[in-house]
Task: inverse folding
């Protein structure tokens, strides 16, 4: 029999990991989430024995499984991770470990104290291309890398979805952009060129998604925007979500906007919720471009450049396809 698991957070990541774990033979024993429709999805798909409306309720029970998957919002990671380890669970902990250094240290101390295994979901290094690149580098295919330039071109519609309208739009409610998004790329850099980093410099900020860049005549919601303004806007929610639905898309990011994904649920969400808002309302504060420079102990260097490159290379009005 496969390992037994408890899921804290049944959102986008929780459900995705549960599907994989289930397909690989794991037993999903319990799930916690305040949203009844997500608990129902778990019940139906995995026949879980226990459902809870809050992660703390799951911790009130004796240890229910060998390991727990922490797929909670960023700000809840540290407290849950420490409590789970104290209870005896090994962890798959979603990134970021936590949004503050003090919390990261608390998680590290709990890990040392309890001897539990903690895997942080830095998923990029496990992709086939990263594994292939690592193997080639290990074989010396291009000699020894001394300096790496890494570009992270975030799709403009992905950025608007997650970092202007979505969960990661405000730093105090989630994490800074670098931690929320580029943490994968920084992990990837250290994976392909390991070493001790001596110095780091980073600059970035919010440049584009500000009220002063709002097109003239734009409404507060895309569904109510004049057609000529909406059609010219690459961030139109109608374009990103409703047209994706019409093309037959049903997965991410549509299932974040409305669950279950139906036309009626999507239209309602765009009419009332954050995913239908104009991207120029000024309700976001995380960076939309950032650079990082790393200097290793032995003098090697690396740089990361994260921005919305895609928009510079796409004609306005040609939104990308939703996807990973
Ligand atoms: N590894 C990756 O590539 C990757 C990608 C996206 C997100 N993430 C991370 O995964 C985590 C989850 O992100 P997501 O996209 O699934 O977000 P999400 O909003 O879809 O899921 C979070 C879930 O936690 C639930 N929740 C909130 N408070 C709770 C509580 N007190 N008890 C139990 N459940 C609670 C929410 O209802 C929601 O369903 C975040 O930390 C995010 O940064 C990682």
Result:
């Amino acid at each position: 029999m496969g390992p037994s698991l408890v899921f804290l957070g049944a959102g986008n990541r929780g459900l995705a990991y549960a599907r994989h774990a289930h397909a690989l033979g794991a037993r999903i024993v319990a799930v916690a989430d305040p949203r009844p429709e997500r608990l129902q999805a778990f019940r139906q798909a995995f026949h879980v024995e226990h459902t809870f409306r809050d992660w703390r309720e799951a911790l009130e029970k004796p240890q229910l499984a060998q390991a727990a998957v922490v797929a909670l919002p960023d700000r809840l990671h540290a407290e849950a991770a420490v409590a789970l380890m104290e209870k005896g669970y090994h962890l798959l902990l979603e990134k970021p470990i936590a949004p503050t250094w003090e919390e990261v240290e608390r998680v590290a101390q709990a890990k040392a104290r309890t001897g539990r295994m903690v895997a942080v979901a830095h998923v990029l290094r496990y992709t086939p291309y990263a594994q292939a690149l690592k193997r080639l580098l290990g074989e010396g295919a291009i000699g020894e890398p001394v300096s790496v330039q890494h570009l992270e071109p975030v799709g403009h519609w992905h950025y608007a979805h997650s970092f202007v309208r979505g969960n990661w739009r405000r730093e105090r409610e989630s994490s800074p952009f670098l931690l929320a998004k580029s943490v994968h790329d920084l992990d990837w850099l250290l994976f392909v060129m390991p070493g001790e980093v001596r110095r780091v410099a980073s600059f970035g900020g919010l440049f584009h998604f500000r009220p002063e860049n709002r097109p003239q005549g734009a409404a507060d919601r895309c569904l109510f925007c004049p057609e000529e303004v909406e059609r010219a806007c690459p961030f139109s929610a109608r374009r990103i979500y409703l047209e994706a639905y019409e093309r037959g898309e049903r997965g991410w990011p549509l299932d974040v906007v409305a669950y279950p994904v139906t036309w009626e649920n999507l239209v309602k969400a765009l009419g009332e919720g954050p995913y239908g808002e104009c991207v120029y309302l000024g309700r976001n504060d995380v960076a939309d471009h950032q650079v990082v420079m790393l200097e290793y102990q032995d003098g090697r260097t690396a740089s990361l450049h994260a921005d919305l490159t895609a928009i510079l290379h796409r004609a306005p009005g040609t939104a990308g396809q939703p996807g990973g």
Notes: DSSP finds 13 helices and ten strands in the chain. Residues 8-14, 32-35, 38, 54-55, 71-74, 76, 94-95, 121, 123, 167, 180, 256 surround nicotinamide-adenine-dinucleotide (CB under 6 Å). Strands lie at 4-8, 27-32, 50-52, 67-70, 90-93, 118-120, 147-153, 197-205, 289-296, 301-307.
